[in-house]
Amino acid sequence: MARKTAHDDPLAPVTLAVGQEDLLLDRAVQQVVAAARAADADTDVRDLTPDQLQPGTLAELTSPSLFSERKVVVVRNAQDLSADTIKDVKAYLGSPAEEITLVLLHAGAAKGKGLLDAARKAGAREVACAKMTKPADRLAFVRGEFRAIGRSATPEACQALVDAIGSDLRELASACSQLTADVEGTIDPAVVARYYTGRAEASSFTVADRAVEGRAAEALEALRWSLATGVAPVMITSALAQGVRAIGKLASAPRGARPGDLARDLGMPPWKIDRVRQQMRGWSADGVATALRAVAAADAGVKGGGDDPAYALEKAIVAIARAARSQR
């Protein structure tokens, strides 16, 4: 979820939204606009791209109004502003106008860093809108969505939704809204499965889970569904590699270690430790080595080393499923 600084007044003179997650950037803008219109229903909102904000434009937009109207000026992709316009913005930061809220959306990378630093130095309210690359962050996002709506969802249901939908925050947010609108009571895994079973079966991680559990037929079925619905083969080999490596890591971890310590040392969330523990039954050290070789061969196959990526993946899945039963 977007993280905000301690200075969290949406009507602060300047709000700086930093990151590349479009949903969070849009929500940062919406929050400011909603607060401004709550204070003044006639608030004028100007939403501008870099090509629309030429030198002198900001001065015109922020000049005193005869009627002292409230105004919100949104500048998207601020890192792409011209050098002259950046000078205008920096000058404005030193003396912002009353009744005007400036919202700067910045990607947060090196480009345009001078403007980013200037806004921070001027004391701008900052909202972090970085891409959520970690599954744990997306899981926290889903929990936060249900909490914000005022509905209860079990941890297993939240995890099932992330597994089914993937990394697109807009789709995750939409799914949370749909479930809360359509379903009464606590949202559990059965509800998620009823609405999103097709998506869940198409998940590359579902393919990997079934393979490392030794369930070859189910893994192959999930693979075919995944490929039919447009999941990239390289994403499936990545998920297979992560699944096998997780088993190897946990198998080599000290016996008797606490889940929290394992999660920290192995870089896995606690829920994944429990899942991998269940999956690793039947695995041997030789089995892990065999499975990793199969994944490497599949990876080469889907990246141009073979004529049929689907066949390369099927072959790897069968090999991994067999390796999962090496101690059974």
From TrEMBL:
Residues 18-107 form the DNA polymerase III delta N-terminal domain. Pfam families: DNA_pol3_delta (PF06144), DNA_pol3_delta_C (PF21694). Its EC number is 2.7.7.7. The keyword Nucleotidyltransferase applies. It comes from the Bacteria. GO terms for cellular component: DNA polymerase III complex. GO terms for molecular function: DNA binding; DNA-directed DNA polymerase activity. GO terms for biological process: DNA-templated DNA replication. Keywords: DNA replication, DNA-directed DNA polymerase, Nucleotidyltransferase, Transferase. It is an enzyme of class 2 (transferase). Residues 202-318 form the DNA polymerase III delta subunit-like C-terminal domain. The keyword Nucleotidyltransferase applies. It catalyses: DNA(n) + a 2'-deoxyribonucleoside 5'-triphosphate = DNA(n+1) + diphosphate. Belongs to the DNA polymerase HolA subunit family. PANTHER family: DNA POLYMERASE III SUBUNIT DELTA. This is DNA polymerase III subunit delta. It comes from Streptomyces natalensis ATCC 27448. The lineage of its organism: Bacteria, Bacillati, Actinomycetota, Actinomycetes, Kitasatosporales.
